[in-house]
Amino acid sequence: MVVLLQKNNALNTFYTLTVSEVKRETPNAVSITLQIPNDLKEKFSFKAGQYITMKHQANGTEIRRAYSICSAPNSGVLKVGVKKVENGLFSTFANNDLKAGDTLEVLPPAGKFTVSPELGTVKNYAAFVAGSGITPVLSIVQTVLEEAPNSTFLLVYGNQSPSETMFFSNIKKLQEDYPNRLSVQYVFSREDAENAHFGRIDRSVVNLMLRNKYKDTQFDDFYLCGPETMIDEVSSTLKENHVNTKQIHFELFTTSEGDLLVEAHDGNTKVTVTLDDETETFTMPQNKSVLEAALENKLDAPFSCQGGICSTCIARVIEGKAEMRKNQILTDGEIAEGLILTCQAHPTTPTLVIDYDDV
């Protein structure tokens, strides 16, 4: 994983952007292109693999959702992919009702699942992705191919069928433009197709790539994006093949509901929060997350997924301790430096001082 991006006040400010295009990518997915005014181009510059958070009102309730940017940074285009999910308020709205000319409230790009290739870099990259996990990886693939002309990329991409494959035509065009540098292996779970593997991305597929089809290629970095079960299996198989953990980069779109809390959280804590150069103090029950309590106390704390799978709500513990219910983002080193995901953090001490600005 790359180092944390520097936060500042602008990262908690939503900007009104106009939708310039909504394109049907599959029967259950669309891409949304946003128009960026000249005075906001710097704020909305991004690295390949980052995401944006969009805000929408549904039946009087504010919902926020993070979606990965699928366009390349040097394209001059800000585009995200949105796959419809069952009971998904924003994804259903985006697929059924959103149209060009509408406006959305959007936070500037953020996220740590990134690549920044250099012109003279010679690397072999590989990605294992499933479903809408292609969205950040498409940006990463394009960026490597365009900005590192001596590097190669292997994309292993799993879906139910060709018709459900997001950005199929984009990937085909990249294959035509970079025939000697981009290799694509499709994996379909519900349909046999020519030159595709039938099944799901699992241990056998990873071993097929590393030990058979590309046994003579030494890969430098691996990018994984998709369901947690796939990422766990691919990661463990890569490690079995002697891939260093530092070479494995991943981003979750969904995660299990595992609870890592060990200590009892049945008391109250006096919390002091620094946010946008202002400090507020309140008392909260320890059985709630720091983010929940901050929002209840009318603080405009940054957040997006609230599920511990993005980095929007990160803060630093200055005094006291907090235990996270779930963590798929922060490394051991970052935790040792005092960083927490406030949507998952529960106080364990009588007082807790955190700073959203100091990350």
Automatic annotation (TrEMBL):
**Keyword tags:** 2Fe-2S, FAD, Flavoprotein, Iron, Iron-sulfur, Metal-binding, Oxidoreductase
Molecular function via GO: 2 iron, 2 sulfur cluster binding; flavin adenine dinucleotide binding; metal ion binding; oxidoreductase activity
Q: Where is the 2Fe-2S ferredoxin-type domain?
A: 269-359
Question: Which PANTHER family does the UniProt entry name for this protein?
Answer: 1,2-PHENYLACETYL-COA EPOXIDASE, SUBUNIT E (PTHR47354:SF8), NADH OXIDOREDUCTASE HCR (PTHR47354)
Q: What is this protein called?
A: Ring-1,2-phenylacetyl-CoA epoxidase subunit PaaE
The segment(s) forming the FAD-binding FR-type domain are: 12-116
InterPro entries linked:
2Fe-2S_ferredoxin-like_sf, 2Fe-2S_ferredoxin-type, 2Fe2S_fd_BS, Beta-grasp_dom_sf, Cbr1-like_FAD-bd_dom, FAD-bd_FR_type, FNR_nucleotide-bd, MRET
Question: Which species?
Answer: Ulvibacter litoralis
Tree of life domain: Bacteria
This protein's cofactor list reads: FAD
Keyword rRNA-binding present in the record's keywords: the answer is no
